[in-house]
Write a structure and sequence with these properties.
Layout (H helix, E strand, L loop, with lengths): L1 E3 L2 E3 L2 E7 L2 E6 L8 E7 L3 E8 L4 H9 L6 E4 L6 E2 L2 E6 L3 E4 L1 H5 L6 E2 L7 E6 L2 E11 L2 E2 L2 E8 L2 E4 L2 E4 L8 E5 L7 E4 L2 E11 L2 E3 L2 E15 L14 E9 L4
Antiparallel strand pairs: 1-2, 1-7, 3-6, 4-5, 6-23, 7-22, 8-22, 9-10, 9-12, 11-22, 12-20, 13-18, 13-22, 14-21, 15-16, 15-20, 17-18, 19-20, 22-23
Amino acid sequence: MVKFGTYLLPRVLDRSVGYPQQQQQLPFPGRAVAYRRRIGGLGARIALAGEIRPASQLIRDQIAALADGIARILDLEDSDLTVLEACLRFQTGPTWTDNTVESQSPAGTPFTLLGATTDYAYFSHREKCNQLKFDLQTLGSYGARTWEYSKGSATWGTLTIDADGTSGFTQDGAVLFTPPSDWKQDTVNAIANKFWIRVKVASVTTVATVNQIQLNLIYLCLLLDPEFPESAKNYNVIDYHCTFQQQENP
């Protein structure tokens, strides 16, 4: 399933995500070919192809109406979740432990999630997400959890959790939340340009260890003009192609 805002796009058959690059071009004396250099990214461009089956002009018009210049959250709801780009544990000292590699592989060495009430576990990616899925090796027993998100410039806000499928890291499951509108990329322990989430606990009875952490990425996008190419394969099917352009710095 793929959702754009609150609208569920029908029967998506193919998808791709790319990151086009802007280029600057300048003439160079004595050279036939101009000098080119990349000057930054344009954000993700996401292409979807699907079918309206059975054919419905109403649904066709509903999709077309979404190209109204309003940015919405595109949630690909991909069954193959993405891995973290950074996973850290902060301990007083200060001591930082980088568990990124271990968090990315289900066959890696299990690592400590939170070992004390003064610890923070940090999770990040260059894109926003709306869930963190935990595969635990050792089930934990903790007190109340405090979740926070980066607001930029080393400031943090309280992250409201919609559902905790881990029941406080006592079982495998996913932590679900609605991405805050002021969630911004920041730098933590010299790791820059990431959207960060962190968690701490009020008490520790049993320390959880983790095999892998995955996340579901989302994108704030505009829908560009959708296409409905004519097809002779089936009169009862309307094909559609949608291109989405990300509207925030990746």
